[in-house]
Please model this.
Amino acid sequence: MADNSITQGLIFAAAMVFAAATFIIGLYQSGKRRKELTLWAFGKGLNISISKDDSFDSKYLNFDCLQKGHSRYASNIMSGAIENRLFTGGDFHYTTGSGKNRTDHYFSFIIVKSPIWLKPLFIRPENFLDKIAELAGFNDIDFESSEFSKKFYVKSTDKKWAYDIIHPRMMEYLLKSPVFSIQFDTLSVIIYRDRIFSTADFEDSVKFVNGFFELIPEYVLQSQKLNPV
Model:
């Protein structure tokens, strides 16, 4: 009986040590990444705030990824201008479920101001559930490139707009680039993945969105250009 008590005590102690070690490692990694983000942001001429902003989602109501779950907040928020485009980037948290079924979700994003008026458009990697939905008759927008259509899910209320933006050269660019999810608001674009970015990911996302805007056709730029203030 005594041996059993000692064994249980050792197991409990080991569990506590493991939990403490995990917590300390988490703090170290969090602090290390925050330093890396701060250096990256300063190198780009951006401001950075490590405070949690639980009203961030209310500023971008049309971005689906910022409206999921509950207990939402943004943190490590970087803001300023990169290559003459207004830029906001950072990490986002939301919670699904509660109690024992609670799950915390974290991902990173960048939001850039568009040089033109935009219409709704959503581009993201296609997944298994999309294939099931397609069999049930819920199709996304298909394109001439079967490779592109298999890899990306595209949704828009205006098919012509989707085809104007995602022309053959744009499809080639998206297929060759690091894969991100993209959503348009009327004057902003959000780029994100369902995970936390490294500084290299933030760098890739900035290069990606710059290349994306450069490939928007001139006739679209002219038809959607902003009126001078």
In short: The chain has seven helices and eight strands.
